[in-house]
Amino acid sequence: MNATVTILEKIKSYQTIMIHRHQSPDPDALGSQGGLAEILKTTFPNKQIFCIGGPVNDLDYLLTMDEVSDEMYKGALVISTDTANESRVSGSQYQLGKEIIKIDHHPNDEPYGDFSWINTEASSTSEMIYDFYEAHQSELKMTDAAAKLLYAGIIGDTGRFLYPATTSHTLWVASKLRDYDFDASALTRKMDEITVKVARMSGYVTENLIIDENGAAMILLSQEILDKFDMVDSETPALISVPGKIETVKAWGIFVAQPEGHYRVRLRSKGPVINQIAKRYRGGGHPLASGANAKDLEEVKEVFNEIKQVVKDFY
Predict the structure, then answer these.
(1) Distance between terminal CA atoms of the chain?
(2) In 120-259, which ranges are continuous DSSP H helix?
(3) Measured between alpha carbons, how far is 270 from 249 in angstroms, rounded to an integer?
(4) What is the pLDDT of residues 7-60, one digit of tens each?
(5) Which of 18, 19, 31, 284 is most buried, with most CB under 10 Å away?
(6) Residue limits of the DDH domain (predicted)?
C-alpha cells in the first residue's frame, strides 16, 4: 500500500494528533510541522491537532508551539516530521502516544516509530507534505497559511533553490504553492535577514576561515568568541552559508563551542560527500549537508582532517 494512503488512514482513525519536529528547528522543520497541521485542522475540524516542541528561537514568525499535557497523549497519534534520529525529536512527550509515524527526507539510518514514510529524493519534508496533499487532494484541504509554511520550508532547505536537492518537481511544487494568497517576496526577505550580531560574526568567519590548498575549510567558534560577539549557538545557523560564498571553498565545517565542553559540528559541501564523516562523529544527515559532534579540540582536528581528505579525493 502506498505510504501516503496508510498515513491518511491512520490520521482518519485518530481523534487527537500530536505533530513534533526536531530540536533547534529550521524552516523545513517548522514548515512541514505547521503545514501538515494547517491542512489537517482545516480538513478535520473536529479533531484535536497540536504542534509540539521546544523553543523555535527567531523563527516564531513562522510558527509557535501549543501547550499540551501528558494526559492529552492518551490514545493519540504522534507524527514526527523532518527528524532523522529519535534522539532529536523535540518534546519528550512524543513517546506517550499510541502510535508514531515518521515523515522525513533524510537517510533512514536510525529508523523509529511504528510507520515511516521516507523520501530521500525530496528537497525537504515540506515538499513531501505537499505531495501528501496532492496525492489526496480530493479529501484534503490546502490553505493559504499551510502553503506559506510549506513554501518557507522548501526555500529554507534548498537555499532558495540553490542546493543540488532542488529538482524540477521541487520547482513545480513551489509554483503550485505560489498560487495561494501569501506574500512570498516578504517571506523570502524575512528569512534572508540577519541581525547586526550575525553580520559582525560573518565578518569574523570570513577573516578567520582556514582554507587548505584543495578548498577544505573550517572555522572554530570558541566560547570566548561567542561571548565577544554576544552570540549563542542557536544564532549560529545563519553563518552556515558564509564559507560557501567563497569561490575556492569546496567543503567546510563550522565548529561551535557548547556549554558542556564539546563542539557542535555543521558540515556543508559543494560536491564531496560529507555525511559519512558526520556518522563517524555522532551525527548524520544529507550527503552535502550534515551535522555532528566533536567531543574536544582533538576531535575537531580529526574532523577537519577528514574533510580535507574527502575534498582532496574528490577533485
Answers:
(1) 43
(2) 125-135, 144-157, 168-177, 184-192, 196-208, 223-228
(3) 8
(4) 999 999 999 999 999 998 999 999 999 999 999 999 999 999 999 999 998 899
(5) 31
(6) 17-154
Task: In the chain, list all ranges with CATH 3.90.1640.10.
Answer: 3-192
Q: Which three cell numbers stand for residue 109?
A: 539510518
Domain 3-192 fold is inorganic pyrophosphatase (n-terminal core) (3.90.1640)
What gap in Å lies between CA 98 and CA 78, rounded to an integer? 7
CA dist., res. 153 & res. 160, Å (int): 10
Quote the pTM value.
0.91
pLDDT digits (tens, 9 = 90+) for 284-293: 888 999 999 9
Contacts of residue 189, defined as CB under 8 A and 6 or more positions apart, other chains included, come to none
Q: What is the dihedral of CA 283, 285, 290, 292, to 10 degrees?
A: -10
CB atoms within 10 A of CB 207: 8
250 grid coordinates:
569546496
Q: Where does CATH 3.10.310.30 sit in the chain?
A: 196-314
Nearest Cα to Cα of residue 113 among 93, 75, 86, 91: 86
**How many of the other CB atoms lie within 10 Å of CB of 30?**
29
Rounded CA-CA distance 301/227 in Å is 23
- The amino acid present at 213, given as its one-letter code, is E
> E strands along the chain, which residues?
16-20, 48-51, 77-81, 99-104, 115-118, 210-211, 216-221, 251-257, 263-269, 284-286, 289-294
Give the integer Cα–Cα distance in Å for 23 and 152: 18
- Using an 8 Å Cβ cutoff, are 81 and 49 in contact? no
